[in-house]
């Protein structure tokens, strides 16, 4: 470790601890935990460097770290906290931002941009959100050191913001947060579903998730006794009306604990990931961790993440997806048929690997090139 490249003080933007847990928040939470474990066990990373996670008032108090000090600063929330309170409190520090946004006037920051969906699929976002996040992205890309979560997103960011790909570091997601996690099988009884008698989707039902194709394929498959469980927040644009309107074969299951989700993965016939656009896509890997077969949309980033460990279909083709649903339904229970392929994916995408990559960037000064 070159003493010239050791930062005296590193602050992590902890705004994610005030937000509902989705993909970006999961990434931030797990990556910081992995960082904390390494820093705690390897004193070289903290002997000459102060580590702080700065959070707004009202942040999740159940989130615990050992080596990184959690510090509540300011009295605002949301973007105002980030642009004013965090900016002031972290002045002079190397500021690590893991969730797409950052204090725009901070002079020494590293920002993870997960995707450029607001540029690629602007029709999927409201005018205010789209306008604000486009402006944020352009400014951050111009005055920050950048990272992202996949080779696909690296190419996308390079194209949209006209930056050389090599100037955009890759710090991938992990999936081992569900390894050895206790499962809560009571959720099966609560949702009135049986083991190996349902297909599973996990994620917020935003337009890019392509749920309409999944719903169409499921109904075309006409599999007796099969059910489709949808885990995630309910979007009225995707699910208008009452739950009863979708019939008994569609099970809506919002707001589930990690233990319940682990159980749903472990007991599903297969997990379906029909997305049209992603920056990475953690759920297929989470399913693999629990031994659940994966059926996924054939888009570049999912190929990058899942490799040969998933069955693929064209994302706009419900008939091919219906055939895959029938094929998986008729297969005998076998959770290890693609064991070696799955193990390779799980071993590749570990939070500790991602934390090591980030530490390497910070302590070799590569985030400041």
TrEMBL record:
<protein>
    <submittedName>
        <fullName>Glycosyltransferase involved in cell wall biosynthesis</fullName>
    </submittedName>
</protein>
<dbReference type="Pfam" id="PF00534">
    <property type="entry name" value="Glycos_transf_1"/>
</dbReference>
<dbReference type="GO" id="GO:0016757">
    <property type="term" value="F:glycosyltransferase activity"/>
</dbReference>
<dbReference type="GO" id="GO:0009103">
    <property type="term" value="P:lipopolysaccharide biosynthetic process"/>
</dbReference>
<feature type="domain" description="Glycosyl transferase family 1">
    <location>
        <begin position="194"/>
        <end position="325"/>
    </location>
</feature>
<keyword id="KW-0808">Transferase</keyword>
<dbReference type="InterPro" id="IPR001296">
    <property type="entry name" value="Glyco_trans_1"/>
</dbReference>
């Amino acid at each position: 470790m070159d003493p010239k490249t050791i930062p005296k003080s590193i602050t992590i933007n902890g705004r994610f601890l005030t937000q509902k847990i989705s993909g970006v928040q999961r990434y931030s939470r797990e990556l910081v935990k992995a960082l904390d474990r390494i820093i705690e066990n390897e004193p070289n990373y903290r002997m000459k460097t102060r580590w702080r996670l700065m959070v707004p008032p009202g942040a999740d108090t159940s989130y615990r770290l050992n080596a990184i000090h959690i510090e509540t600063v300011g009295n605002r929330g949301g973007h105002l906290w980030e642009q004013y309170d965090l900016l002031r409190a972290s002045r002079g520090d190397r500021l690590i931002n893991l969730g797409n946004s950052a204090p725009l006037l901070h002079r020494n920051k590293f920002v993870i941009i997960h995707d450029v969906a607001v540029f690629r699929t602007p029709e999927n976002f409201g005018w205010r959100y789209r306008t604000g996040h486009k402006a944020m992205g352009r400014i951050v890309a111009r005055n920050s050191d950048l990272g992202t979560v996949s080779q696909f997103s690296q190419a996308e960011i390079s194209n949209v913001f006209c930056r050389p790909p090599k100037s955009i570091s890759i710090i991938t997601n992990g999936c081992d947060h569900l390894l050895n996690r206790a499962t809560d099988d009571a959720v099966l009884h609560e949702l009135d579903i049986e083991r190996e008698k349902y297909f599973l989707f996990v994620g917020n039902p935003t337009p890019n998730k392509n749920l309409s194709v999944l719903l169409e394929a499921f109904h075309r498959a006409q599999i007796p006794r099969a059910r489709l469980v949808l885990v995630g927040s309910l979007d009225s644009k995707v699910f208008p009306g009452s739950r009863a309107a979708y019939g008994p074969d569609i099970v809506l299951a919002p707001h589930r604990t990690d233990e319940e989700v682990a159980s749903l993965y472990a007991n599903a016939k297969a997990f379906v990931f029909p997305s049209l656009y992603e920056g990475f896509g953690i759920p297929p890997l989470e399913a693999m961790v629990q031994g659940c077969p994966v059926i996924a949309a054939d888009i570049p980033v999912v190929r990058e993440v899942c490799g040969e460990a998933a069955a693929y279909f064209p994302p706009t083709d419900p008939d091919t997806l219906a055939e895959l649903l029938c094929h998986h339904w008729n297969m005998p229970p076998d959770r290890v048929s693609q064991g070696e392929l799955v193990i390779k994916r799980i071993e590749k995408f570990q939070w500790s690997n991602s934390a090591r990559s980030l530490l390497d960037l910070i302590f070799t000064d590569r985030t400041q090139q």
